[in-house]
Every structure is written in C-alpha cells, then in structure tokens.
C-alpha cells in the first residue's frame, strides 16, 4: 500500500521510515506547519507509542475536534492500550472536569495493527456517512 510521511527536520532524526511512499514524503522545518498539514484533510489518526512530540500532535488533533476547528469527529486510535493508559489517565481528566465523557470516549485503544485498521475503517465509514447526511440536508433532501 501507499503510505504518507510527514517528517520534521531535527538534529537527531535522519529520515522518514522506510515504509513511506517516496512521492508521498513531506519534510517540514516547523512543528506547527507539520501539524497543520497532518490534520488538514486527515480521515483518522492512528498513534503509536511515542514521546512529547507524539503527545503534542495527539492533543492538537483532539483539541481541534473539541473546539470545532476540525469539523469532523475523526477516529483517534492509540496503539498499545497498556502504554497509553499508563501514561495518560483519561478517566482522571473526566473526573477532574478537564474533559467531558464524550471527549474521553473519542479515544479508541488497539493492541494490534489489525485491530487498529478495523477501528480506522469503521471510523472512516461513520465519517463518510455523516458527510452524506450533511450534504443531503444542505440540499433539502
């Protein structure tokens, strides 16, 4: 399959991973431009375990959905349930009133690539169905 890569110029990063399709490889100098283009037309977000940059990108997309800057409710899939739940206690965010239960429920956990792929396909299907309904409503159907 084809894979899109959004690289960032950093002193400790050599190149994009070998799975990126060469004509779909993009290199950025600034994080904000990289995050913008990553989220601009995406249909879903699949996040593997990572550090602060990964968390920054994850929270950026979730925040843009929460505030309506991204109009679609994208599927957000975190690979490695144990990793993510040990790093971020989503339920504590809800209990302290920092996010809603709805926000917390937007996060989907998967432990395998197959599981993540199924969630992604299901989420994209829901997005496409919502878009069809929106277009039909705009046309008065």
TrEMBL record:
Locate the transmembrane regions by residue number: none
Q: Note the superkingdom of the native organism.
A: Eukaryota
Give the Gene3D superfamilies listed for this entry.
3.40.50.450
The record's section on Pfam families has:
Lysine_decarbox (PF03641)
Coiled-coil-forming residues are none
InterPro entries hit by this protein = LOG_fam, LOG_family_nucleotidases
Write down any Gene Ontology CC term.
cytosol
Protein's UniProt name: Cytokinin riboside 5'-monophosphate phosphoribohydrolase
Organism, by scientific name, is Zooxanthella nutricula
The root-end lineage is: Eukaryota, Sar, Alveolata, Dinophyceae, Peridiniales
């Amino acid at each position: 399959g084809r894979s899109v890569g959004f690289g960032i110029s950093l002193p400790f990063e050599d190149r994009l991973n070998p799975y990126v399709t060469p004509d779909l490889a993009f290199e950025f100098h600034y994080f904000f431009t990289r995050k913008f283009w990553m989220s601009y037309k995406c249909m879903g977000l699949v996040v593997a375990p990572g550090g602060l940059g990964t968390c920054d990108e994850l929270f950026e997309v979730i925040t843009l959905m929460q505030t309506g800057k991204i109009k679609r409710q994208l599927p957000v899939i975190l690979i490695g349930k144990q990793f993510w739940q040990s790093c971020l206690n989503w339920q504590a965010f809800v209990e302290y009133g920092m996010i809603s239960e709805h926000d917390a429920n937007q996060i989907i956990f998967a432990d395998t690539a197959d599981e993540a792929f199924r969630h992604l396909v299901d989420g994209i299907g829901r997005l496409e169905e919502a878009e069809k309904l929106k277009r039909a409503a705009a046309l008065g159907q």
